[in-house]
Amino acid sequence: MAWLRRVLCAAAVFSQVACSLPTEGTGASTADVDGGTTGGSGGGQAGGGSGGTGATGGVGGTTTHCAAPMSCIPSPPSGWVGYVRMRGEGYPPADVMGPVCPDESTPERYYSGLAGPAQCAPCSCSNQKGGKCGTAPLFCSKSSTDCSGAQDATGDVDGCGITNGHSGLSTLSCFIGTIPVVSAGTCDPSPADFSNKDPWTGVNDVCVVVGTDGCGENERCIPPGSGEYAGYVCIQSPGDVECPPDWGARTLVYKSVQDDRNCSQCVCTPDAANCVDAKYEIHDWLGCLTGGKTVSSSTCVDLSSTVNAGWYAERTQDPFATGTCTPSGGQPTGGISGQGAITFCCRN
Q1: Residue 247: which domain range?
Q2: pLDDT tens, 321-340?
């Protein structure tokens, strides 16, 4: 069968397939570390075939995680810019500038919580002043103690030097009639003002965060925050817009404000005035040397125990006008609007 083996080997040479004869080959093939197989040494006079080419090493894989303490954050969607970190406080702020950013840069300051229309205080008015009254009429009855049949006795009030024309029985009762109002007074209006003077309710300081490569597709690697900027990571877009999915913590801020809020002036319209507090003193003796009795209102005063056939009267206090006013005005005017709106949308 030796001749058959030689025929088969000759055919193999033409087809580039290595063939070894067991009686002539002595070398053993060895596997190369890089994946190729090294051919064995030739046996007898025919050398062994050359070893196969080593396999090529695999391509290095792409990392999908940032090196600590960095973290992977989704890339901003179209129309949005990232990234920033924010901190906030109430208005007015404690300082003109917020705390420095984690990278020692100066934060950008914005304002949030735009105030509403002016909350005007209700208008009010003082009591009337400066009104004028006519003479207070004195009505007296010399024949009754309850002022029945009383007649106008104002003309008899001429001081204490002349005896009044009423003589006869020592019976007298008097009251003051309705005092005429010559002119009503005026009232002082309260100042027109509003309470919600602050244009904002909040202040927001923003630090820019630079993202780097090192994450998977559509992700960026960002450094951690610190201090008051250790919270959310945010993206931003101009205007008042809705947040994209997965960026649900929304804050609308403004760069500045246009505020011309005010209140219309308060006005006081006088109501009907009254003239009050006129006083008359009735005496029995010429010269008013003895104590008398006072008549100071529309209530009848019995003077019979004070006077006799002759009596004397003096006007001790002129009336004065009093009254109120109806206030109006104090309505909100103008308005307030934020300038340079920016929407920040954030996530943990």
Answers
A1: 71-118+198-256+337-347
A2: 999 999 999 999 999 999 99
